[in-house]
Amino acid sequence: MPELPEVEVVRRGLERWVAHRTVAEAEVLHPRAVRRHIAGADDFTHRLKGHRIGTPSRRGKYLWLPLEDTQQSVLAHLGMSGQLLVQPHEAPDEKHLRIRVRFADTLKTELRFVDQRTFGGLSLHDNTPDGLPDVIAHIARDPLDPLFDDEAFHQALRRKRSTIKRALLDQSLISGVGNIYADEALWRARLHYERPTANFTRPRTTELLGHVRDVMNAALAVGGTSFDSLYVNVNGESGYFDRSLDAYGREGLPCKRCGTPMRRRPWMNRSSYFCPQCQRAPRVSS
Ligand SMILES: [Zn+2]
């Protein structure tokens, strides 16, 4: 599942290759890829036709292409295996090509949505006054957003009576942090994932947010993380940040700080990776 850095890499690719281009026509090759567009495939292609794409935008893991002069946006759901590729017209169709968008210009490239497992798709939505697709209006700002409010996040942590990893994955508090970067940031901050948030101090919150941002910026710098050979960025290049992960996926390997074998524990239908020495479990209180 792509996380914020991967989605931002895709967004930057789209900004470079498809922003300000006018749609000549869209073609839906598999109806499942537009199932979130309730009015159906014909309506989807009709509404895109002739419109210019604005600057691709992102909040957390959500990515959208505004359609200029419409107050609507095309929301991309990458799902488990969705890819947005910019390809030359003459490139052979990918086996799992679901949607093709051709442009009314002479650049000789087209946008393709390719998705093996078809959990993802594209859909058109009305924008909120903030310019967000209405279906994601409840998603909080992400930590790389200049308008993210650290103090409000801290207060929310204190109020929530949650545990820290659960809070980091709560998209109504902070968006864009998934399982991988939560484990990485918690390892850097030496915090156990079950630490209660109610007694977080302001310096602790500030330090943790700093680690969240560092780990995301590091991933961005190398083009996102790839755990799945299916994930590639907009130009078809695979990310390779996985080589520099400190926690995620390192069960049994020595902690890079203290050498203690890292552990993996089942956590909310996923896994948490942590160092039992550096990230001490909180004392159980009933
Ligand atoms: Zn350690």
Describe the fold and architecture:
By secondary structure, the protein is of the alpha+beta class. It folds into 2 domains: 4-136, MutM-like, N-terminal (N-terminal domain of MutM-like DNA repair proteins, Alpha-Beta Barrel); 150-274, Helicase, Ruva Protein, domain 3 (Orthogonal Bundle), CATH 1.10.8. Helix content is 24%, strand content 20%. The chain is built from 6 helices and 10 strands. The protein has helices spanning 4-17, 41-48, 150-160, 164-168, 179-189, 202-221, and strands spanning 23-28, 57-59, 62-67, 72-77, 82-88, 97-103, 109-115, 121-126, 263-267, 270-274. It has a 4-stranded antiparallel beta sheet with strand order 1-6-7-5. A 4-stranded antiparallel beta sheet has the order 2-3-4-8, with helices on one face. Helix 1 (4-17) crosses helix 6, helix 3 (150-160) crosses helix 6 and helix 5 (179-189) packs across helix 6 (202-221). The longest helix is centred in the last third of the chain and has 20 residues, at 202-221. It is elongated, with a radius of gyration of 20 Å. Residues 227-231 have low confidence and may be disordered. Zinc ion is lined by residues 255, 257-258, 260, 275, 277-278.
